[in-house]
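Long-time lurker, first post. I've been practising inverse folding by hand and with some scripts of my own, and I keep getting stuck on stretches where the structure tokens seem ambiguous. Below is the full token string for one chain I'm working on. Before anyone asks, I'm not after the true native sequence, just a reasonable design that respects the backbone. If someone could post their per-position residues I'd love to compare against what I wrote down in my notebook.
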């Protein structure tokens, strides 16, 4: 005999609009039926009979966002309500929420914010801890599995943009794992997102230098800093000379004049040597008398006596030659004096010019032109920009490297923690795996059904329902059904979920009739055994098909029965686009 007490969590759901059909629910299995008539037209089915809208309204009343299909202008001035039994107090509370004002909810006699209402639901209905270490799952995420809408083909997902780690945290919580441990994968996911963002920036060319290695950037940065300090030191040592160009021109003129004086002095030195040589030759050259004596000796050798008249003539020539030599020597000595005087003058002028030039060169050495100074300052600025750019790139490279190291460390930490948690909770996990296989055998006699759970290298609790055979939509929907049942039963056992599970008729659309009937039988039995409400919305033709395959509707169908015929047959009591 089961020890579970049958409970009514949701007793009523309605609207302040009198046309809306108030729904009343009982314990165990509830079937909200829509009678599809033969006279219904395509136009009659614009918003259907309202079966899926019931699920959307229920989620909205439990703090969810307003579904787009409920934002019709004709619904804007109305509100919805439900009556819930809270397990912490056992009291029945009426919860009312307006379509036009989505930020507040009336709970009993007080009006609270949606945020406060979600916090109460998280604590009272799902026993979620109030800690920053457990960012997931949230109450709306857990509700999204207990009352699914639209997404039925992927068992582990409840909405299209849900990440793997969020899915794992939600299912893992139902199965008894610690939310703090499950949320460690969130930190890894955030780091991974940062890494991908940096890589994307790198590939886009914004920081193209990130493909350089850190040592290369360090070398470039050291070189740039050295050049920057060198330019800065040069600017510090030099002063600006606004007449720098004039001084430079003057020094150039002095250099040219000194070169001219040097050339002149060199020519004069050569001339002086030539003159001195000429003077020495004149002094050492033979006189005219010597020439006469040599001539007489010549005549004597040949036996001829030199006549007196000839001797006299040579004496006159000697006197003339002596006079000529004297005059030439005087002229040469005078020219040599002039050259020596000019050389002295040149030396004095050259020494003065050289001293002046040296003074100017020293001035130029210790100063620079204004244009040169401004150019150096500009170069210093650009060099500073280069350093800043390299530092930014180096910081990005180091950040990426550190991020990758941090990511590896966090991933390993999350994986180790999750493995330890799964080991500690292995009995609960084994119960869940066994229950999935057992329920699967009730639906399929010829297929193996099993649930795989494992920690990934990023600390994600990976859940994978498996059913042997093809990957048809019908089989995917059975996977969803089985997983939801396992999560609901395990969550109820652990006190982590309210005692309710809702399946919209869309879940059964692609199932064949036999599997649908088996699923309904499993649901009704588990609801009875574990004391929870299993609410199913169905079309009448699908219910009849399930009955033909062995499902007994008993007293499961609740009043009123909806219909898609006419304007008033649906849940809202009127049609809207």
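-- Answer (accepted) --
I ran through it position by position. Result:
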């Amino acid at each position: 005999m089961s020890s579970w007490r049958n409970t009514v969590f949701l007793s009523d759901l309605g609207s302040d609009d009198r046309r809306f059909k108030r729904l009343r629910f009982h314990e165990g299995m509830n079937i909200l039926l829509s009678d599809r008539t033969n006279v219904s037209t395509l136009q009659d089915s614009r918003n259907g009979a309202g079966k899926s809208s019931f699920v959307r309204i229920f989620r909205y009343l439990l703090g969810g966002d307003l579904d787009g299909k409920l934002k019709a202008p004709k619904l804007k001035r109305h509100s919805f309500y439900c009556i819930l039994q809270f397990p912490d107090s056992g009291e029945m509370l009426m919860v009312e929420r307006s379509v036009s004002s989505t930020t507040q909810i009336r709970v009993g006699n007080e009006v609270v914010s949606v945020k406060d209402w979600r916090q109460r639901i998280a604590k009272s209905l799902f026993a979620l801890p109030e800690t920053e270490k457990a960012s997931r799952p949230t109450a709306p995420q857990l509700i999204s599995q207990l009352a699914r809408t639209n997404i039925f083909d992927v068992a582990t997902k409840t909405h299209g943009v849900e990440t793997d780690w969020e899915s794992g945290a939600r299912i893992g919580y139902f199965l008894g794992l610690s939310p703090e441990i499950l949320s460690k994968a969130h930190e890894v996911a955030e780091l991974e997102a940062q890494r991908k963002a940096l890589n994307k920036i790198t590939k886009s060319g914004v920081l193209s230098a990130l493909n350089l290695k850190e040592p290369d950037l360090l070398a470039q940065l050291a070189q740039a800093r050295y050049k920057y300090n060198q330019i800065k030191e040069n600017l510090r040592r030099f002063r600006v000379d606004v007449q720098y160009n004039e001084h430079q021109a003057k020094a150039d003129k002095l250099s040219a004049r000194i070169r001219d004086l040097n050339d002149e002095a060199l020519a004069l030195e050569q001339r002086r040597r030539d003159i001195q040589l000429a003077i020495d030759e004149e002094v050492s050259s033979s006189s005219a008398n010597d020439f006469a004596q040599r001539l007489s000796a010549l005549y004597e050798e040949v036996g001829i006596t030199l006549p007196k008249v000839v001797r006299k003539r040579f004496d006159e020539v000697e006197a003339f030659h002596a006079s000529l030599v004297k005059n030439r020597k005087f002229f040469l000595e005078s020219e040599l004096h002039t050259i020596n005087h000019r050389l002295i003058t040149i030396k004095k002028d050259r020494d003065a010019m050289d001293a002046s030039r040296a003074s100017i060169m020293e001035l130029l050495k210790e100063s620079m032109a204004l244009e040169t100074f401004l150019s150096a300052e500009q170069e210093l600025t650009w060099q500073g920009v280069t350093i800043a750019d390299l530092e930014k790139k180096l910081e990005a490279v180091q950040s990426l490297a550190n991020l990758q190291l941090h990511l590896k460390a966090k991933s390993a930490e999350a994986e180790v923690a999750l493995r330890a948690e799964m080991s500690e909770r292995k009995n609960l996990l084994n119960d869940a795996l066994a229950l999935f296989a057992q329920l699967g055998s009730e639906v399929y006699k010829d297929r193996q059904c099993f649930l795989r759970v494992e920690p990934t290298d990023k600390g994600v609790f990976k859940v994978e329902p498996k059913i042997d055979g093809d990957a048809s939509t019908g089989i995917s929907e059975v996977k969803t059904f089985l997983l939801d049942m396992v999560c609901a039963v395990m969550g109820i056992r652990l006190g982590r979920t309210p005692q309710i599970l809702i399946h919209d008729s869309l879940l059964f659309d692609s199932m064949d009739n036999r599997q649908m009937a088996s699923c309904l039988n499993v649901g009704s039995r588990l609801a009875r055994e574990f004391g929870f409400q299993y609410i199913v919305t169905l079309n009448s033709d699908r219910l009849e098909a399930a009955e033909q395959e062995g499902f007994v509707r008993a007293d499961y169908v609740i009043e009123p029965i909806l219909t898609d015929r006419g304007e008033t047959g649906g849940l809202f009591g009127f049609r809207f686009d």
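A couple of notes from the structure itself: Residues 247-364 form one domain. Residues 39-47 have pLDDT under 50 and may be disordered. Happy to go over any region you disagree with.
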